[in-house]
Amino acid sequence: MGLYSYTRLATYKQCPYKYKLRYIDKIPEVKTIEQFMGSTVHKTLEKLYKNVISAKLIPLEKILEYYQKRWARYWHDNIKFVKKDFTKDDYKALGEKCIEDYYKNYYPFNNQRLFM
Are 64 and 88 in contact (CB under 8 A)? Predict the structure, then answer.
């Protein structure tokens, strides 16, 4: 009997051919630089909010340091660049700017509109 999960079922519902490629043929999914940057920013903000929930506010410098370390740890050369005008460093800097802007806009993270 095969392994079923929400992700597998959602993939099949979205596109049976995508399901076949990923789970039956086991063809690795190509990750774009936009996906990589977005997931790295997302994981960084997730860390920020896990600490906020525990009443620990991480300074901006430390959260940016976490982003940079995570970027370096998970970066690999198989990440696809769609826009050839931008470099790895351009995307990394854009992610840092997104985090910095978010941090400055929502600090101290007790705004009611965040939790609605």
Answer: no
Q: Who contacts 63 (Cβ-Cβ below 8 Å, separation ≥6)?
A: 44, 47, 48, 99, 103
Q: Is the peptide bond before 108 cis (omega within 30 degrees of 0)?
A: yes
Neighbours of 63 (CB within 10 A): 21
* Contact present, 27 and 34 (Cβ < 8 Å): no
State the pTM of this model. Answer: 0.74
> Which residues make beta-bridge pairs with 80?
32
CB 71, CB 98: distance < 8 Å: no
Alpha carbon distances (Å) from 81 to 27, 77, 78, 92, 112: 19, 10, 9, 13, 38
Kindly give the confidence (pLDDT) of every residue in the chain, 116 residues in length, as a single tens digit, with 9 standing for 90 and above: 467 788 889 989 999 998 998 889 988 777 899 999 999 999 999 999 999 888 888 999 999 999 999 999 999 888 999 888 999 999 999 999 999 999 999 998 876 555 44
